[in-house]
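Question: what's this shape?

___
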Amino acid sequence: MPFAVDRIDHVVLNCRDVEQTVHWYARVLGMRREIFGDGRMALVFGNQKLNVRPTGAPNWATGAVDAPGSLDLCFIADVSADEVGAHLRACDVPILEGPVAKTGALGPMTSHYCRDPDGNLVEVASYRMPD
């Protein structure tokens, strides 16, 4: 094998309404809005970002199916699962499931599931173990 990938740099999130999507991710998940390139929008968090692409955007390569609401995303929060649940409720975000025990890339974690404005499944997980 000549190489192996190291990490994900960014994911492109196809959406119906860029402003609504960016507002939700900033308000609910604390991501930071960033404009790049020729006026494109991104959501920055940690050392990663979501590029926010309006569905049907010309001159922006995307997957074979340009379908808002077709992703399952998992984000890690460095707070307790109880704090994640409390924050989602405070933001009036319906919790579909959680807290539930799951296994992530680094081992056991506790997750809450919700949906973004386009219907993407958003998992917010914590690796912090309860006291």
